[in-house]
Structures are given as structure tokens and as C-alpha cells.
Input
Amino acid sequence: MCELYSKQDTLALRGKHIGPSCEIFFAADPIKIVRAQRQYMFDEKGEQYLDCINNVAHVGHCHPEVFKAALKQMELLNTNSRFLHDNIVEYAKRLSATLPEKLSVCYFTNSGSEANDLALRLARQFRDHQDVITLDHAYHGHLSSLIEISPYKFRKGKDVKKEFVHVAPTPDTYRGKYREDHSDPASAYADEVRKIIEEAHNNGRKIAAFIAESMQSCGGQIIPPAGYFQRVAEYVHRAGGVFIADEVQVGFGRVGKHFWSFQMHGEDFVPDIVTMGKPMGNGHPMACVVTTKEIAEAFNSAGVEYFNTYGGNPVSCAVGLAVLDIIENEDLQGNATRVGNYLIELLNKQKAKHTLIGDVRMKEKRVLLSVDGPHRNVLKIKPPMCFTEENAKVMVDQLDGILTAVEEAMQAETQSVISENTPCRTKMHKDAHVELLSDSTNDPTENPSRKRNGMCTNKHSLLSKRLKT
Amino acid sequence: MPSARGQVSPRSVSAPTDSAAPWPPVSARRLTLWPCDSGSSALPADFFFLRIQLRLSVAKGNTCMMNKGENTSIASTMWLTIGAGGSPVGLAEWSQPCDGGGPLAVGHCHPLVVQAAHEQNQVLNTNSRYLHDNIVDYAQRLSETLPEKLCVFYFLNSGSEANDLALRLARQYTGHQDVVVLDHAYHGHLSSLIDISPYKFRYLDGQKEWVHVAPLPDTYRGPYREDHPNPAMAYANEVKRVVSNAQEKGRKIAAFFVESLPSVGGQIIPPAGYFSHVAEHIHRAGGVFVADEIQVGFGRVGKHFWAFQLQGEDFVPDIVTMGKSIGNGHPVACVATTQAVSRAFEATGIEYFNTFGGSPVSCAVGLAVLDVLEKEQLQTHATCVGSFLMELLRQQKAKHPIIGDVRGVGLFIGVDLVKDEATRMPATQEADYVVTRLKENYILLSADGPGRNILKFKPPMCFSLDNAQHVVTKLDAILTDMEEKVRSCETLRLQPSSVKHPPGKCTGEERSRCTNCNPGEKGIPDIRGQMAWGLAPPLSYRTRRPEDFPERP
Output
């Protein structure tokens, strides 16, 4: 692969010309990726990395059916959606066929953020209410309107919570207010939402929407307890609001059993608005909002003409259609279930052995993983859907090796005070390092080998490891 | 005529079991051809494909369908590359868009852009949290087009995302919240941008208290017109007044947001000097100047790469947003700003991540567009064709009273239709009618402006002289027809062709109004009378061919 610049020059140019707050993986020692195929990425030296991060490359990096579809359409026509075209209607038809019947009207955008912003506009226009209930640690996008409803972001910065935003506790049965030993955590958490609605009403405020990622990702790979969404939807509807399910991270068959993550909650649960993005185009910028005819008509009758320059263009729709075909033809949902179950089995075997997290070591072992969650201690595994059982074995073997080595090192230093200034023998991701060592919120009486959630039929279930102090 | 469609047979690919094996190779036959004359930006790629196939299959000595001059719409040079295809079946119908050029810098389906995207799609398309050459190369190339202080870039997917980020940057940098915008402005469809787009919010939620609206610097229809001694200063003083009013209420200005050439506001060319004066007032109030180049950047104005550069070399905005034409239709956009603004944003501690923004494919596409703009000298081309089109339109203005104003620069032109010359009342219904009639003639144009009466020309940059001639000829015929049959307003009732005297020979009251006898505007000869009498000479600028213009490599 011929590089334009050496890695050092690339880094220098990035420092000069790219916004300094733009996120980079492994900031202390970034990786330069020049090529990728399926679930593998390759750096400038040709070293292969197993990609466990990139849910966006849903059907595998550089899938030929996807880029062929893009090429074919790019050579024909790539213009805006103000002209009739078959691709957009065909794609809308195929998408709505994957969803419950009442979700039949599509708006195409370019990013999950645009989709969530439009979802908010739709919700607010519906009954002219303004307020939004969001979950703690939620992240819905980088736009101004979405930072406002993303505690994951606004709690970090100087921004304060806006008065029209109400934050409900994350339905985390592992670390949250109501845990797995509670008799009915779903109702308990839903009741928190009901209380918020009541308080808002007492202050003369009106709820436009409850928005939630069907499974919280940045919040720590949270899977809400069964029944939670139904109860919340009931309270929100009673208050005249709508339920927005943010499937931007988790849609398109990632959970295996179902196409959409919200479907795990039962057939009787149907959100009013669903947003989707990320994996939709296997990396091509595209996203979508699907809603009911009623909500769409309310938006229209408000006199709003919605136009998105690139949204719904023929190339994006061709790419979207190709991705849907591949998911079906290659039985990627089945693969997600099979490999996901196998991975959980392997990880379960590890949890009895180890109590540490080591993400940068994984980078050195050519396995790409990231950490997230409020305490940056949850390993996020959401690889391309073509991830195999062999990949799962490799990943877990590496994890095992790293955790063993780190534990041995830790045992050798049990008498020393571990501080931030202690030089590490291995390069650790700075944030994770700090979190691990100064995580005073650890409960030493807690069982460190606890499995994360009961619903482990998918790759999102993770183990939370704690440092033994 | 039947339409041609190249059929690509899909290959079914199953994932190889060997974990390290690459995908099976995809066959994409590329024919990079000789430079040949082909015209309209809107010819579908399968049309080219068809023609190339026919040319290849035609024996030597037979008619070459790509020869210059065979098709009168063919006048400019394009490189062609064609993908794998099936059998041609006939010629395709085509139309010439004068609009929809927003997202298109270099022409629909430009092969070099398609090739760049395709090649990169096969290698890597992932997010910007890994180092990659494309994003830094693209940022560097963009920085070379901008004044030196605008050297830090954020890549996104749409103009709307770009403007939203610009708003966030401005607020973080200044610590202020309020925004000053122009009347009839449109900055995007996101919640935050509807709030700063009077074009939208006047019909929706209304003006927010943190938004302040200054008059559009429209020297044709605004409060200060072409006869004002210094409209730039006058309009800038309006901004100063708006800022003072806000400050008196204890509000603090974060930014002045402006489209460098307001488009939906009616193809407005702000008077020279306006931006500098405004920047002065805004900076004094602690705000920043955001130039929205989404509609008009990338050489469209001809003389310069960026429309804000029309305001003079001494004027440099603090933040520039770009989109639409940046990727020739691929979803790309960008914010360029100064080190100071970007550092302030970094200091918030919040990391910025845009899933698709700055991806290797988007940057490859952006780079290809820059390459094409340079190699095909489309900026010069825009000046050339734009000037020609303006001249033709000015002739039409002299001929048809319904045309109240023709304004523009490069390939950004507006034709302002009025019901009444004196009051300049917008001819809304007539503009709609013209647009519909043009569509029936296979010409795509749109109308905008507060009165939806301004015909907007912003075609792909490869729009040719012949395209310009063709459009204006059709427009002329339609307006003439309207004057004869529609006659729905004062300006359609004045019929130069019904003038009963030869040029220069009018008498009495008619003399002052008679455009047949009075000289045309700005020295362009008024030919209506001559045309009416069948004396129209073959004016050189009406029959110019590419040979008359400097050779392009």
C-alpha cells in the first residue's frame, strides 16, 4: 500500500490541520490504518488487527457487493430527492418491511445525529410540546440539540442541563438504582419516568418525547429489563408525548434474534419514532428516521418543507439496499447469534479467572477494542457482523493472556502504593489507567465475576471487571 | 427515443472461509479515454457509455459520434471513464439543468470523482479516529485555497451539520449565545439552524430572543438601493444598530452568520465592503464572523475560489462552512476556522466525533473534486460562461419588462421577475409559470427569494456556452409567449413587438418610456426594436463559439 506521508508526517499534519478536539483512538500512540477487509484492519506496516470496535462496517469492511452497488449508481445518477427515483422508494419499502406495520414513513438523512435531530423536531411538532426525557449517560449525537439531551456529553463540559430536559436513571440492573435482586426493576425504573413526568406537569411543562437508545452503548452496553419500555411508553403516551427508539448503534440485526433491538422487548412494544444510522450503509454516510403516518402528517401540516440535500440520494439508497441484501443472503443475523453465544461462553470462562481490564494491551496484541461507560471500565465488543468463532477465540485468548500478565504484575506490587506517577511496564490507555487505579467507587464486597446481564444472546453483553484493591 | 441503460450483472460473493483471504476481485473494466468534446453536465453517464461503446464498435472510417459539432450541445471538454457495462440499446433523452447545481461542482457522475470513490471504497472506509493520509491531505489542500489563518478543519456530512458545529464553535470561543443573521437567510434544516434561518422560522416557531435579524443587503429591493451612495456602509450600519439594540437588552453576540451570497434570499450579491464593515461591528461586540459558503464555494463565483473573497483581500471570516458542491453529490461538508477558535473548543474538554465525517472515501472524493476543478479550469470556465450568460440575460432584460433585475457573479445568477417596474413587486405566479414552461422544454430551473420570483441559476460548473445560449433562447420564447398570451401583469402587457415605429423614431408621450428608442442599460445595445423589425444583426456575442475563448488544455 503506498502511503502519501510517513506515519509521523500524517500525525504532524493532523496536529496542524484537524480540529484538536477531534477524537483519536490511542491518543498516546495512535494507529494509522490504511486498509481493511471484513473484520480486519491493516496498518501502514501491513500488520493485521482484529476489529472488535467497528459496528459501522456492519457487513464487513469494503464488502464488494456494497461498493459495486455504489459504483453502479454513481456512474448513473447521484442527485437529490426532489426528483422521483426508484431507489429511495424501494429502500423505504424494504426498510419499513423490517419494522412493525405502523412505522411506515421514512425520512432519509446523512448521519445518526441528523436523524435524532429530526426525530426531536417530529416529536415536538406533533402536539407542540417541548420537553424531552432522556436517560442518564445517554448519547444521541454531536449536534447542539442533541448535546442538550445527551448527559454523556453535557455532564462533561461546561454546559448545564437545560430546563426542558429531564434525566431519568439508566435502567442498569448491574450498577443502577434497582439491581438484579430487585423484584421488578422494569417497573421501578419506569416509575422513575412517571415521577419525572408528574413533576414536569406540576411545573407547567409538557412532555414531547422520551428518547432512549434501545441498548445504551456509551452508557456502558446497558440492556434495559424486559417490560421497561412498555411501561415507559404508557406513561409518555398518557402525557401526550412520543417514544423515540434510537437504533443508531444497535439496529440491522446486531442482536441476532431480531432485526431491531427494541424488538427484544416484545411484540407488543412499538416505538413511535425509530432512528437508525451507523451500520446502515456499511460506512457510507446515511441514516433514517421512520415514524407513523400520524406523526408525519402533523409535521407536514405544520407547513414544514423538509429538504436534506444529500439524504435519500440514489447512491445512498443503492448502498442501503445492498447492505440489506447482504444481511439476508449471508445470514448475518444467524451468525451474530451463533458467534455471540460462543463469545459469551468463552468470556464466562474467563470471568472466573480474571478481574482486570486491559484495553491497550489488546491494541498491542492487534485486537482493537474500546472502553466506555460512566467509569470507562466496560469493554465494548461490537465488531462487524462477519466476525467468526475463530475471531472470538483469538480475542478471548489474547484477553486471557493480557489479564494474566497484568494480574501477575499487580500481585508483585501489592505492597506498593500504586499512583498515577508509577511508570507502567506496559503502555496503558491513559484514561483507562486512571479509571482503574483511582476508581474509588468500587465496592470491594461486590462479586467481581458477575455476569453483566441476563439477556446474553448478542455480542453486546459484556462483563464488568473490577480492580481488586 | 428509447433510453440507454448499461446493465451490470451482479456477482454473488460469499465470504471466504480463510480469515486472512481477501475478498474475491471485482471486475470493473475501466476505459480511460481520449479527451473529447462532450457537453451538458446532465448527460447521464450511461449516455456517454453508450456513445463510447458505439464508437468502439464502429469500424474505422464510420461516423464518430463524439465528433465536435455533431450535437450542438457539445462544446466543452471532459474526460470519461466508464465502468463495466452491458449492451447499448439506443440514445438517451437528456435535459440541461441550470439548477440542482448546488451539490454539483464538476458535473453529474464525473468519472474521476466516481473513480476516486470506487478505488477508496475497495481499500478502506472507516472513521477518523485512526490516522489516515486522505484526511490530512485534504485538509492541507483546502487550507491552500483559504487565507492563512483559516487552517483548522472539521469534517462532517452535510452543510447543516457544518453550520451547527460553527454555531457551537462560535459560542464556545466567545462565551456568548446570541446570533445576528440576515433576513430571509437559510442555514440548514437542523433545530438549531431553523432558529437562525428567518427563511424558515417565520413560518414555524417564530424568532427566538437570542436571534437578531438585520436587513438583507439587497440593492435591488432592500431599503438601500443601487442609487444609494454607499449601500455597503448603510447596510452594515443596520447590523451595528441591531447589535446595539441587543446589547442594550443585556444580550451578548456570539456570531454574525451570513451566506457569502444569499441564495434562497434571492441570489443577492452583497455590496463590496459590507462584510468588512460588519466584521468590525461584530468583533467589537465580541462575536465572530461566520461565512456560510455551502451554496457558493469552490470556484462558483469565477473570480475567486470562495465567494467571501469578492469582498476584498483584507476581509477574512473567522469561520467558514462549506458543503454541497464539495463532494459533487457525495455527503461531505467541512468547517474551517482559526487556531484560536479550535483551541477554545478543545478547552471545553468535550471530544468531537463525527462517525462518517472525514472518512477516507469522503476525503478521496473531496480531493478528486479539487483536482477536477483545477485540471478542467472550471473556475475560469465559470467566469467565462457566467459572463456570457449575464450578457444574454441582460439583453433579455432590455427586451422583456418582466425582468426587473439580472444580478450575479460567475455561475451564480439571479433573474428577478417583477409585476411592475416601478414598484418592483415580485412576479411570483409568473415565475412559477416560467419554471414550469422551462421544465416542459427539458430545462430545470427553480425560483426562490422571499417572493419566489427570482430565477436561480447555479448549474454544475461544466455548464457550457451553448447551454447558456439554449436556456436563454427558450426563456426568451417563453417570455415572448407570455407577453402575447398570458399578460397577467403590467410588465407582461408592455409589448415591444407592438411598437408601431422604427427605432429612434418615436414621438410624444411614448418617448420617455420607449425602450425601443432609449439606449439599453450599461451600454449594451438595445436590440428589441431591431429584432421587432427583423433587423437584428448577428451580434458576435450571441453567436460566440468555444473557438472565441482562450484554449483550455
Summary: Chain A touches chain B through 98 residues (CB under 8 Å). The radius of gyration of chain A is 23 Å. The CA atoms of residues 273 and 291 of chain A lie 4 Å apart. DSSP finds 14 helices and 13 strands in chain A.
